[in-house]
Each structure stands twice: as C-alpha cells, then as structure tokens.
Amino acid sequence: MASRRSLLAASLGASALGAFGLRDAAHAQPGFPNKPIRIIVNNAPGGVGDLVVRLTAQKLSKAVGQPVVVDNRAGAGGILAGNQLMASAPDGYTLMTSGNATAIRPSLFKSYPFDIQKDFASVTTLAFFPIAIVVASSSPLRTAADFLRQARQDGGNMNIGTIAVGSTQFLAAEMFKSLAGSPATTVPFNSTPQLINALLRGDVQVGFETLGPLWSQMQGGELRVLAVTQAKRVVNLPDVPTLIETGLPDFDVASWNSLVAPAGTPIEIRQRLSREVNAILRMPDVEKILLEAGVEPRGSTPEDLDALTAKEMERWRVVIEKAGIEKQ
C-alpha cells in the first residue's frame, strides 16, 4: 500500500501538471505542504490589495492541494500582523503580506519593532499598483505637460491631494515637488472618497492615487488621468504617458505588495512558494481580473524581493528626510 507521503507527492505532481504544465522534479519539496498554509494580511478585508491576496490564496490552494487561509490582522501600522508572523514557526506554513508600506515605516516611526530585512524572509512580490495623476474633468489641465508647467510656474497656488501622510502616494507627490522644483502644497486625506470629493469641488487641483479606487470615476468621466508615476505605461491605459516621458528622468514610483515568511524559513521552501505564486500570477484569468482592477500582477524570486526592499527603504528614507516629515 502506498504511503501517505507518496500519495501526497503524487497528488501535488498531478495538481502542478494540471495547473502549470510539466516542471522539473527538483522543484517539488517532498512533504511540503502537508497541512494548511496561513497568509496574515496586514490590512482590513476589501480593496484591491486584499483581492490580490485572496485570488492568489485560492489558486495556491488548488496548486498545492492544501487549504490556504487568509487571516486579516489590521491595525497599529502593520505591527499586529508582524507580531503574529514573528510568533510563528519558520516552516513555510505562515506567511504575511508586506510591501512598500512596510519598507517605508522604519523611516516614519521613532520606534519600529521590526528589522524587516532580518526579521522577515522574502518569498515573492505579488502585484504593483500604479499611481495615477488625476484631475477633475472640468480642470483646465489637459496634459501631463500642462501639470508640470503649472506646478513649476504657479505651484504656490496648487494643492496636490493624496491619502495619508507617509503613504506611497503622499511620498510620490513629495518626490515630484522636489524633482520638479515646485512649491505646491501636498494635502493628505484620510480616504480616497474624501480625495475624490476634494478634486471635484476644486479644493485640490491634482490628485495622486492608485488606479484601483479611481476606476469608476475615470470611466464615468468625472476624473481625467494626466500621467502615471511608474517607468512604463499602464497596460490598460496605453495612451497615458509616464512622468519620465513628460520630462522627469528616473521618476519610477508604484505601490506594491509581497509575501514574506518568518526569518529562518528555509530558502528551498521559499523558492517553492515563489515558483507556485509566480505561475499563478501568469495565469490568463488571474491577469485579466487584476488588470481590470487597476493592478499589475508581478512576481519575483526571494532574492529579487530582498533587493527591491533594500532599494525602497533607502529611497523613501531620503524622500522623507528631504520633505521634513517628522517621525511619529
């Protein structure tokens, strides 16, 4: 009679073949996973970030033949979720969402309890969330060039709306002002609906926000997109230029999220999970769902995520210092 382990290995092999095609046998980690995997999410349910995680979890469960449970632990700037992860065994069965917000926090807080490069072990990026520069449809600003010119020539009369001090959107606006030499004022709001209402009322002239929460107003004609802040044009907005094209070299900013494990999780397990998730993110149905939500699915190796995290930590440390944002 076949052992439980051999049956599990056969099941995993069949699942992988069915979902992704033939793989190198070395990719299989015998015995892993043999119980449910938990993904701790450091924000509340809902929103495009949560959509990415839940869609990935659903597909990952089918791929590995085990339940993948999404556990939302919002609050305290990601500290609650981080504590949960650090209390977990480094065996690959507990993961946590991370991303650029986590890379920013050490520069925002006087006392941040984690060394994210030592306490967390990288698995893979999940998705990038392009940031759009938008105006009300009634705005006289018609192009990205119009925006850049007015920000430079009449920035003292320009308010740029974003969400939350310290968010990627807020810091992208601060970075824009620094590189463009603009005296514009950045106005943070508590939520995207507040930002949209301020744009429509004319309280702020321009908004920096991720695409997902803006889709309905963009499609309804209430908001117009002038540019995106990442290096490449957005797939679903091929006619919208980047700030680089508009005249700000090297301006490449997007929000992103990722998966990490507790420090000490074996690299073989993290690489296995990375391969599975990367394959999921390349599935046509997954790409379609996420692109339509204003999200660009993009996986990575653990090593590439290490490099991205280090780069983002340093980049935002400099931006925060230049902007004079006091640590909380």
Explain what you see.
The protein has two domains: 4-129 and 255-323, D-Maltodextrin-Binding Protein, domain 2 (3-Layer(aba) Sandwich), CATH 3.40.190; 130-246, 3-Layer(aba) Sandwich (D-Maltodextrin-Binding Protein, domain 2), CATH 3.40.190. The protein has 13 helices and ten strands. It has helices at 4-20, 47-64, 79-86, 100-104, 116-119, 144-153, 168-180, 192-201, 215-219, 243-246, 267-281, 284-292, 302-323; strands at 37-41, 68-72, 94-99, 120-136, 159-163, 185-189, 206-210, 223-228, 254-262, 296-297. Helix 2 (47-64) crosses helix 11 (267-281) and helix 7 (168-180) crosses helix 13. The longest helix has 22 residues, at 302-323. Mean pLDDT is 90; it is low at 1-29.
Q: Mind sketching the topology for me?
A:
Elements: H1 4-20, E1 37-41, H2 47-64, E2 68-72, H3 79-86, E3 94-99, H4 100-104, H5 116-119, E4 120-136, H6 144-153, E5 159-163, H7 168-180, E6 185-189, H8 192-201, E7 206-210, H9 215-219, E8 223-228, H10 243-246, E9 254-262, H11 267-281, H12 284-292, E10 296-297, H13 302-323
Parallel strand pairs: 1-2, 1-3, 5-6, 5-7
Antiparallel strand pairs: 3-9, 4-7, 4-8, 4-9, 4-10
Helix pairs in contact: 2-11, 7-13
